[in-house]
Amino acid sequence: MTHDAARELAAADLPDGRELTVRLATVADAPVALEVIHAAFLARPVVGEKPEALADDLGSVRARIEHGTGYLAFVGDEPAGLVMTAHQQGAMRLGRVGVLPQFREQGVASFLVEVVLEHLATTGEERVQLLARKEFPRIQAWWGRHGFSPAGDEGNCVVMARSLPVAVEVPDADAMRALGSRLADVLRAGDLVIATGDLGAGKTTLTQGIGAGLGVSGPVISPTFVLSRVHPSLGDGPALVHVDAYRLGSFAELEDIDLDASLDDSVTLVEWGAGVAEGLADGRLDIDIRRGIDPDDDTRWVFLTGVGERWTRDELAAVTAGPAKEDT
Ligand SMILES: Nc1ncnc2c1ncn2[C@@H]1O[C@H](COP(=O)(O)OP(=O)(O)OP(=O)(O)O)[C@@H](O)[C@H]1O
Ligand SMILES: [Mg+2]
Question: Nearest residue CA, atom 11 of ligand 1?
Fold first, then answer.
């Protein structure tokens, strides 16, 4: 693996087929980072005070990379965007968020920010903030779509903040089942879990662990051909309803398979449920499983986000921090 590959965090294809990559910046990248800052910020309309970013020079950018983290996006070999992070005012803050004009409206900024948020979560950060200029409500709305909400005022800016998912590193399939089994300890009747992740990410493997932890009748296997399968409890706990929404296009189709009857007295887990299954309950546990970019590495990162009153971040962090359960 080259040094560069080690710093590469994620890759994706743009709609036009070009490759978008995000990697961590080193001090050697300071000239590239400065170029991106100038190109991205000069292209913005100046309202009121000049953005601080335009006063950056090589020295200040190098210092920012040394004392924080820089994330650079490339389209092919061309620098396309930048985000920098640093601890400021007792919080983890994003700054210098910019995409070059020629790479806008293609999903570069969204991908870059999602990668940054995930990376921050894997480094144990719990919350993140940024400053958004008050004159640009559309920018605030954009951050709103990425989970940020207004959390205060600072000069001519709104402080936008959000909490980060709980991130767990899972080295192999057994560890994934062990994680599922620990999650089962906090799951109860009526809970909805939505599992997301590419083909073969480990959604079913995690569900096997949840089934084992709940003590339901097995085997838990991919429900692909039946859409949904009910695993009754072997004791007096809730049943596990395991749904595969891969082929379902909409919530209406999901409702057709008549889950309502079982929802209240079961734990319902929907694979591929993002964008389809949210309407089944008021709250839910979102589980996002990601593979690294090295295809030979089995390690997965699992991101847990509780939505609604039912879940607290602390509860999820406690579950994932617990010792792995021994197989019995
Ligand atoms: N760290 C890991 N966590 C989970 N599974 C792993 C891991 N490493 C290797 N594997 C293997 O990857 C495969 C994951 O398959 P699984 O069926 O759980 O994925 P899935 O997300 O449900 O896929 P699909 O989208 O097809 O439903 C299994 O063969 C499992 O043994
Ligand atoms: Mg599956």
Answer: 173
